[in-house]
Write a structure and sequence with these properties.
Two copies of one chain form a homodimer. With 163 residues, chain A is of the alpha/beta class. Chain A is built from six helices and five strands, in the order αβαβαααβββα. In chain A, helix 1 packs parallel to helix 6. The termini of chain A are far apart.
């Protein structure tokens, strides 16, 4: 994808292996790109067992256990949804770490409240949730690549800061 | 990823929309790359609802219903496994079409029977299964890209030839 993403995925693997942890992911707007970046790393089967591409709301509910109430009240692109996605991804995979991504990559779907490029990230690290919103510039492909890079970069920092 | 892959994903979407069908995928060695290629297409949420990255054997069993007997008798890289993966992916998503991929991208894992670059593809098209083996040259990244391109290209031809 990009050299930066490749290096981040490699570093992530080292951090996880050192802790004997595994990671899972639940991807909406990135559509499998985080899984693809992770599995580009030879030997990633040690620390990555499964990922879920939950593009529709039904998939978010059925595969990850996101509640209908959360989706109705806050929308698919929200802190609440990515938090439930990340927890669901970790539980489904029995993983210590999970990344969830839901955003508006464009070209359609932007609103005044949630403009194009809005991406919510949910991280689940050893039992604790962290949710972060970012606003990325660029076209659909650029927003998705930036989201993948941000997710990998951030999860490494969160793993580092988890004692 | 590549222009060819992008064009194939676009064409696949047109074929599916024309039939009012949806597609799902179950990815092992491609690790989410097919989902990523599909969701690169704007509007793909109409015809793609979910995908499953089943990197481990446990994930293949739990998320897709591949039997332990199949994995033990034939291995993860086999016609039998990808057939069960594809059927499981279609059923989980209530999709008419599914792609499953399981292969040996390298650099490790090759055997005399299943050398590096061996990839099995399972296609499930409107109730019918088609399983195909390919042997790709190249390094890990090249094998994965060739597998993604082949999967998209082949599923289009199978959809075309399904009456």
């Amino acid at each position: 994808m990009t050299d930066d993403i490749d290096q981040l995925a490699q570093l992530l693997g080292q951090k996880l292996v050192a802790r004997n942890w595994t990671i899972s992911c639940a991807e909406s707007c990135t559509g499998g790109g985080i899984g693809y970046a992770i599995t580009a790393i030879s030997g990633s089967s040690t620390w990555f067992k499964q990922g879920l591409i939950t593009y529709s709301n039904d998939a978010k509910q059925q595969l990850l256990g996101v509640t209908e109430q959360t989706l109705t009240s806050f929308g698919a692109v929200s802190a609440q949804t990515v938090q439930e996605m990340a927890r669901g991804a970790a539980q489904s995979a029995s993983a210590q770490v999970a990344i969830a991504v839901s955003g508006i990559a464009g070209p359609d779907g932007g609103t005044p409240d949630k403009p194009l490029g809005t991406v919510w990230f949910g991280f689940f690290i050893d039992g604790k949730s962290h949710n972060i919103k970012q606003l990325f510039n660029g076209n659909r492909q650029q927003v998705r690549l930036k989201a993948i890079e941000f997710a990998l970069s951030k999860v490494i920092r969160l793993i580092d800061s988890s004692s």
